[in-house]
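Team,

Forwarding the record for the chain on the shared tracking sheet. I've put the sequence and predicted structure together so nobody has to dig through attachments.
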Amino acid sequence: MRPALDLLNAVADLPQGPVVDLGCGDGALAQALAARFVGRDLVGVDASPAMLARAEGYTRLEQADIAHWKPAMPPALIFSNAALHWLPDHAALLPRLAGYLAPAGVLAVQMPRQFLSPSHRFLRDIAASMFPDRFDFASYHPPVAPAVDYHALLSPLGTVDAWETDYVQRLEPTEGIHPVRAFTASTAMRPIVEKLTEVELAAFQSAYDQALTAAYPLRPDGSVLFPFRRIFFTLKV
């Protein structure tokens, strides 16, 4: 939640128009957005019907794939927290989103940029080493670029502020597995898990835990201090 609030705090004055929570998920940010932009139409957009069914606090909800979404009217703010890294071709996507904004509107984005860190790099390295018939990451490119690249991409469109921050998280002890594996299991690890048998998965998890223990040592209480990098940018058109 803290990265989203840090992004929200970076949004300055807005013109007239609705506020769009793009990739709203279950509506975790609806209350914060509504409190910040009192009286505005607040639109939650997500591709998942299950997530939208749980989302509350919006003026209206739209089920849509972000890759094809287009607003009904120009938004004052398109706010996207931890969603756009799932989409390819940011060089085309972000200018398109910016083009939907009302004059003086703002595009505000936060994405994880952890893909070259040990927690994520080990997943690719171990999978390719153990199962080369199914995994080849030789041409892998992280889906999220450095902040300077987004600044260069968006600065012709308006005023840009871009930065990166490492958030040091304390991960609680987890029974039988490394806390970082518990953290990545439902996100970064998922595409690999889907291609493994039960026996293969057990071997992979053991190797991953061993590598994680070296990179992220357990503290005396079994917890781990886990640096996680996130990228932020705002564009005022």
